[in-house]
Amino acid sequence: MAYTVSKLKDFSPATLEKAAEKLLQALEDESAAIKNESDWKAFRDHWMASKDGVLTSLNDLWLKAAPKDAKRDVGQRVNELKKRVEQAVDGARQKAERAADSQSESDRLDITLPGIQRLVGAEHPIIKTSNEMVAVFRDLGYSVQEGPEIETDYYNFESLNFPPNHPARDTQDTLFIANQGSKPLRQQLLLRTHTSPVQIRTMERLKPPIRIVIPGRVYRNDPPDASHSPMFHQIEGLAVDTNITFGDLKGTLDHAMKAFFGSSVKTSFRPSFFPFTEPSAEMLVSCFVCGGSGRRDSEPCRPCKQTGWIEILGCGMVDPNVFEFVKDNGYDPAKVSGFAFGMGADRIALLKYGVDDLQLFFQNDVRFLRQFA
Ligand code: PHE
User: Fold this and answer.
1) 372 C-alpha to center of ligand 1: Å?
2) What average pLDDT does range 190-218 have in this prediction?
3) Rounded CA separation 139/142 (Å)
4) Cα 266 to averaged position of ligand 1 atoms, centre (Å)
5) Environment class of residue 266 by beta-carbon count within 10 Å: exposed (0-12), middle (13-18) or buried (19+)?
6) Closest C-alpha to ligand 1, atom 4
């Protein structure tokens, strides 16, 4: 209950003293309860408002009502009380201001506090390797193409000239999507086993000449070990134009390997076989770990198994049978020729970083991955 001035029974010093004590007590209690500026304003108005504040009532009910002979005493008392009220209101204002200050103090930015550490993501070493290899071909004018990881038998095998009962389709190698038996073979879905289907997909869309590089994830039914994984990464390339020769294939890949591994590496081509290239080759690079000598620090070199050469990719001239599937889009095998190549990004990352277990790349232990960031 807010304090109100009451009339005095009499104007004796004792009565005045008691009434003054009661007033001062109320003044103290109310001022102690002030927490903010609006509390302070209410307090000020209660005590000092000229119309109905406590001081006005004091004047009316005490001073004006006092008989003549008591006026002097009562006047002194009232003046004293007035001063005390003014002091209390003033003191309370300072207190309210300080409270407001310390409030904004605690809201203020403390630039001496340590910041919130936000971890910055980094490329995975395989993606990094893949991007670096892709960049080499982009510099040669190749554009980047991508395709679906869930593929049809048609794009993954048939249009790449795999005969109907080629062993690569065996569940040994290929991961098929379940319950596809009722569909014709060419529409059956599988996890693509290589990035080569994007060759056909791109030739269906773009007319020759084309030069494309295709990074992506591929899948095979291989149990994981130090050099195998059921999911891995390839980088594919395809160039088609008039008069593309095996010399263009060799020159392009030799340049790319020097750009990627360093200008001192040599390349070597050995005959091989792929259904979609003819002739086909495996390309090796001279071992960039031992410099091709087969020995390092007088120990047998492990990455190249002491041969001085590391197998990096498969390649060849696009088989005319492949062009037959996209002949209508300008790929007449009598008019155009091309070369293609495909390499494993995971294997190249292993060799490049000297990691001896492929699984380390997929376990996602940050302590391992951080080294490549
Ligand atoms: N697709 C082949 C593989 O996965 C690699 C390759 C691509 C070979 C292009 C020749 C031409 O083994």
Assistant:
1) 28
2) 98
3) 7
4) 21
5) middle
6) 194
